[in-house]
Amino acid sequence: MRYFKELSNRNRIVSEQTCNAVVNLQDTSCYVIKFVISGSEKCIVNSRAMSIFPDSFTVINAGTDYCSLIDSISPVHTLTLYLDTKFVADFNRCFSLDHEDLLAHTESKDKPQFVETLYPLVGNLNYNIAHLKKQISNGIEDEMLINEYLHHCLIGYYQIYTQEIDNKYQRLSFLKTKTKKEIFRRLLLAKEYLHSNSDKEVKLEDLAKYCCLSTNHLLRTFKEAFGKSPWQYLIQLRLDRAKSFLRTTDYPLSEIICLVGFESLSSFVRLFKTSVGITPFKYKRLNAIKNNFFELRH
Questions:
Q1: How far apart are CA 224 and CA 38, in angstroms?
Q2: 176/179 Cα distance (integer angstroms)
Q3: Helix %, strand %, coil % for the chain, to 5?
Q4: What is the CATH architecture assignment of 2-171?
Q5: C-alpha dihedral sign at 258, 259, 262, 266
Q6: pLDDT tens track, the chain, 298 positions
Q7: Rounded-to-integer distance, Cα 250 and Cα 216, Å
Q8: 178-185, long-range: CB within 8 Å, 24+ apart, which pairs?
Q9: CB 226 within 8 A of CB 233
Q10: Contact residues for 109 (Cβ-Cβ < 8 A; gap 6+)
Q11: Which pTM was predicted?
Q12: CA 146 to CA 15: how far, in whole Å?
């Protein structure tokens, strides 16, 4: 199953389901925003591997080399937005300047450079992607409507960028800008490692080695930037993914535990109840009731 739409302004949308795919690309004419609706996709950006799951996405700058890999028993559903550099530059200009400056300035030729990392799929962007996915299922063809969706997707991304990059960067207490930027870059590598390996055993020493920080330096600066220790961040990530599986699949709990990286049923249930307030069994039952009620109303 594949949906492909290229617009007159050179924006493109590709939605497909596949078990095996390898894509190598360098495109100087567009930015790429990659989402995974179900399953997972490995993306290698500038020789750095990241795994994209339904709770995350990545942004790739125009001109960046990247490789996309899918190797799965069941079909992986991906959604990729290719945004023309002029479209993004104009949006960035409109987003950054006030109305008077917009009227006074000519078209911007600058290409914005975004941090190429994993971002959480939350807030308005999550809402817009869910609606765009429904429109794609219905075979959307209206260019004006599609461009409105892409515009709102960029608004959602900029909001997430502010929260995940600007705000967390400012939390670091280093005085030298160069040091602060380098530490934050390495912390983003640590965060990517946790997201990409959350279903495996993660050792603090391996995490520190991956981001080129000592274990104690990592522990101090990670919590300063992200508000949680690496262990707390990993546990919350696993719990959030477990909640998603409980809401959207019929997988048995034993399988969900393996998929998200927990080894013990008892520790998972205890942590889940502490975090959510109810057991995973009750959480699944309440969401099933809620979904049935929603279907009856519609």
A1: 32
A2: 5
A3: 55, 20, 25
A4: Sandwich (2.60)
A5: negative
A6: 789 999 999 999 999 999 988 877 777 789 999 999 999 999 999 888 999 999 999 999 999 989 999 998 989 999 999 999 999 999 998 877 665 655 666 666 678 999 999 999 999 999 999 999 999 999 889 999 999 999 999 999 999 999 999 999 999 999 899 999 999 999 999 999 999 999 999 999 999 999 999 999 999 999 999 999 999 999 999 999 999 999 888 899 999 999 999 988 999 999 999 999 999 999 998 887 776 655 555 5
A7: 41
A8: 183/213, 183/221, 184/225
A9: yes
A10: 89
A11: 0.90
A12: 14
How many other CB atoms are found less than 10 A from the CB of residue 151? 14
Residue tagged 């709990």 (tokens): 253
Token code pair at residue 266: 């008892």
- Strand pairing partners for 83? 31
Question: Which residue(s) pair with 79 in the sheet?
Answer: 15, 35
Q: Alpha-carbon distance 203 to 263, whole Å? A: 14
User: DSSP character for 165?
Assistant: I
Are 11 and 150 contacting, i.e. CB atoms less than 8 angstroms apart? yes
Tokens of 292: 């049935």
Q: How would you label 165-197 residue by residue, b for 16+ Cβ within 10 Å and e otherwise? A: beebbeeeeeeeeeebeebbebbbbbbbbbbbb
- For the chain, the domains span 2-171, 173-227, 239-298
Which class does domain 239-298 fall in?
Answer: mainly alpha
Q: Residue 297 phi/psi, 5° resolution?
A: -70, -25
Question: Which token pair is 62?
Answer: 């125009």
- Residue 100 token pair: 């008077």
d(Cα 105, Cα 97) in Å, to the nearest integer? 10
